Amino acid sequence: MNKPVYMDNNATTSLSPRVLDAMMPYLTEIYGNASSKFYNVGRIAGHAVSEIRERVAVQLGVKPNEIYFTASGCEADNWAIKGIADAYKAKGNHIITSSIEHHAILSACEFLEKHGFDVTYLPVDGEGRVNPQDVEAAITDKTILISIMTANNEIGTIEPIAEIAKIAKAHGVLMHTDAVQAVGHMRVNAAELGVDLLSVSAHKFHGPKGMGLLYIRNGIRISNLIHGGGQERGKRAATENVAGMAGLAEALEIANAELNESVEKMTRLRNRLIDGIEKTIPDARLNGPRDDGRLCNNVNFSFKYIEGESILMMLDMKGVCASSGSACASGSLDPSHVLLAIGLPHEIAHGSLRLSVSAETTEEEVDYVLEVLPPIVERLRQMSPLYEG
């Protein structure tokens, strides 16, 4: 291949040229501070923020005043967990989440445990699904929040969020979902899901990095995570990133408008990868569900007798960009907490590879991966003292 084959779209995506075009006016001409109301450049920027908020709300099926912009999905997750915990601590100190959440959720919950909160980390089945009955059984009179991700970032499992949200509502418990990996790969409508809070990150669907949002249903109390000025209606201090907001809105509109076509293409490429790997590489285990319960662009395999880091380095030498799990934990030597949660032993969890496509991925690129990956796995196995051939 003449250019790198990018197969790590669950980590981040390329910035769409149309999104960049939508952002440029706010970086060059309409550069005023959106909170400055006494001159025209600032007022124009402020009006733009209001219009952008309305566009985003339409795409998520909610009201404009329920959208709060953040600097990332991680910030949105932290705000949801910590902000609700603080605002409702007089009611209770119990939070329910799952064992396969993104570290933005897990680390926020661990932080709260150090400050007097109790957290239940629900198990998942062998494909990474949370059982709604387990959620209901874990609810106590002290439970104030349930946070379950819409779709897993490592193995692509789609969770039964609408069903869990109904359970939460029936028990008077707030429901948050981390939809960071889901938006752009499936239809996400916060109102239809029935959740109270929902996190989004623009760079997962060809928007800009450093831009996210938190949907907060009207009537929900939440304490501020970032203090300072009165931006975002007094709930989140920081000078408005108007260009980033415009990029998020444009990327979200494009993703939803083209969703049916892009999902069909990504599903086809995903299945081509899965089928090809299973046909050419023995002792390869597909992690996560196979068909409808899986994100359209996600492939995750564990290869016995070898380590994922070695696969990544050798793929890189062949011009292929991939990962062994969450990009946010790529510096860790520990096996994936998600793979351990679905029952894999440490030695097999260490041999994982995540390949994630986008609508820009080509069949030629998929076939190239299927050409170079089997010899890499075989070579590494021949070097492994665990492999007996």
Largest sheet: 7 strands, mixed
**Helix-strand category:** alpha/beta
Find the CATH superfamily of the largest domain: Type I PLP-dependent aspartate aminotransferase-like (Major domain)
Q: What is the percentage of strand-forming residues? A: 5-15%
- CATH names the topology of the largest domain as Aspartate Aminotransferase, domain 2
Number of helices: 14
Major sheet: arrangement of strands: 2-8-7-6-5-3-4
Kindly state the number of beta strands. 12
Distance between the termini: 31 Å
Number of domains: 2
On the 0-100 scale, what is the average pLDDT? Answer: 95
Shape annotation: globular
Write the layout of secondary structure elements.
Layout lengths: L4 E2 L10 H12 L11 H21 L6 E4 L2 H15 L6 E5 L4 H11 L4 E5 L9 H7 L4 E5 L13 H10 L3 E5 L11 H4 L3 E5 L10 E5 L14 H4 L7 H16 L1 H22 L3 E3 L11 E6 L4 H10 L2 E2 L15 H5 L4 H4 L2 E5 L6 H21 L6
Parallel strand pairs: 1-11, 3-4, 3-5, 5-6, 6-7
Antiparallel strand pairs: 2-8, 7-8, 9-10, 10-12
Helix pairs in contact: 1-9, 2-9, 3-4, 10-14, 11-14
